[in-house]
Amino acid sequence: MKTYRFKLYRSKKNKKLHRLIDVAGRIYNHLIALHKRYYRLYGKHLNVNKLMQHMTKLKKRRRFVFWNQLGSQAIQDIAQRIERNYKLFFKNQKRGIKTAPPSFKKIKKYKSFTLKQTGYKLLEGNKIIIMGNVYKYSKSRNIEGKIKTLTVKRDFLGDIYIHLTCETEETAVEPRSGKSVGLDFGLKQFLTTSDGKIIESPLFFKQSIKEIRKLHRILSRKKKGSNNRKKALITLAKAYKKITNRRRDYHFKLAKELAEEYTIICIEDLNINAMQKMWGRKISDLGHGQFVNILKHQCTKVGTMVVEIPRFYPSSKTCSKCGYVLEELSLDVRSWACPICGAVHDRDVNAAINILRVGASTLGGEGVKPASAGILR
Ligand SMILES: [Zn+2]
After folding, report:
1. Is the same domain home to 274 and 183?
2. How confident is the model over 47-102, as pLDDT tens digits?
3. How far is the CA of 314 from the centre of ligand 1 (A)?
C-alpha cells in the first residue's frame, strides 16, 4: 500500500468539498450521540453492524436526507472509524491506561471524508472528478498501482488535499543483513540508540513561540469580523503550518538515515495518548508518533525490519548487563549503577540496549547482529 498526497488548486468549487466535509462532521456527531445513548440505555457498546442497519433507516427520513450527499461508503467509513477508536479506547481501559472515549467534534474542525470504490474518478493529466465535479490538483508525482480509497482532507488554512491509497504490486524488498539497533524515545533526548548515539530533536514549536505569541497579540487587537482580522488569522495559521512542515522534513531525514544505516530497528510500542497525559504538550511538539510512522515507511522501502516490543517491558529499570530489575527509577535520574553487577548505565542507552535485546529475541536471534559487541549476551 502506498499513499499519495496532492493539493487541490484553489477554486470556488472547493466550497462544495468543504460542505461535504461539514456533512461528514454532522454525521460523525450524530453517530457519536447514538453510541452514547445506546450505552446509557443498555450499558453495552453499540456494534458497528447494528449501527449501520439503523443508519440505512435514518437516511430515508426527511431530516437526514442531506446525509445522502456523501454516499453510503463514506458514511460507512465514518462508522468504522468511530468503531476503531472505541475499540482502542476499550483496549486501553483494560490495560489501565486512561484515555478519553471518542467524542463530539466541532464541525469547523472536522477534517475529512473517505470514498472507497465510487464517487470519484481520475482523469487525464491532473484532473479528478469528486462527487460529480471536476477538480485540478498539483500532480507532483505519478500514481502507481490500483487506487483503493480517496480521502478528501482540509487543513486549517482552508486548503484541500486529496490522499490516494493505492495497492502496489508487491515489490518485496529483500531484508538486508547488517547492524541492528534499539531506539529509546524520550523527552530529554528525542532518541537514544543502543550503540550510544544521542539524537536531539529541535522543538520546532518552542523555537517559534515568540513569533507565534506576537501573531496572537496582533490578532487579538483586530476587530471581530473585520478583514484585517481575517488576514491576521491567515498569517497565524501559516506560521503554524510552517512549524508542522519543518518538523515533518526533519523526521523524514532522520528516519531515512536510520533505515539505511541499520537492518533491524527495535522500538517500544508507543502510546502517544498516554504519553501526552503524562508529559503534556512537549510530546506533541516532539512528534514521536509521527516519527514512528515515517520510520516504518522508510524501513519498508529499503528492506529494514522494525520490531516493536510491548510497552510494559521495563526497559529503563532493567540492567542490560545482568538483567536485574530496579524497583524504582525516577524520571530525573540520568545514570545509575546496578546494585548487583556494578555496571554503570546511562539511563537512555541502557533502555535502548534492552529494547534491542528484547526485540532481537522475538526474532529468535536469526540474522541478528548486534550493533556493538557484547550487547546480546
Ligand atoms: Zn546488573
Report:
1. yes
2. 888 888 888 888 888 888 888 888 888 999 999 999 999 988 888 888 777 778 89
3. 14
230: CA distance to ligand 1 center in Å?
61
Q: Cell for 303? A: 528492506
pLDDT at 344 over 90: yes
Residue 331 lies in a domain: yes
Return the amino acid letter for 1.
M
**The pLDDT of residue 163:** 94
**Looking at the structure, do residues 70 and 194 belong to the same domain, yes or no?**
no
Q: How far away, in angstroms, is 18 Cα from ligand 1 center?
A: 59
pLDDT of residue 282: 63
Domain hosting residue 216, numbered range: 179-370
pLDDT in tens, 308-336: 987 778 899 999 999 999 999 888 889 99
Query: How many A from CA of 144 to the centre of ligand 1?
Result: 52
**Whole-angstrom distance, CA of residue 367 vs CA of residue 243:** 40
> Separation of 326 CA from ligand 1 center, angstroms?
10
Q: Which of 167, 195, 217 is the last residue of a domain?
A: 167
Q: CB-based contacts of 264: which residues, under 8 Å, 6+ apart?
A: 179, 180, 181, 304, 305, 307, 359, 360, 363, 367, 368
Task: Give the model's pLDDT for residue 276.
Answer: 63
- Cα(26) to centroid of ligand 1, in Å? 57
CA 24 to centroid of ligand 1, rounded, Å = 56
Domain boundary (146, 167, 188) is at: 167
Question: What separation in Å is there between the alpha carbon of 319 and the centre of ligand 1?
Answer: 5
Taken as a whole, the chain contains a residue count of: 377
Residue 373: predicted pLDDT: 31
Judge whether 172 lies within some domain. Answer: no
What's the CA gap between 57 and 59, in Å, rounded?
A: 6
Give the CA distances from residue 249 to residues 41, 94, 202, 345, in Å, rounded to whole numbers and listed in that order.
Answer: 48, 36, 12, 33
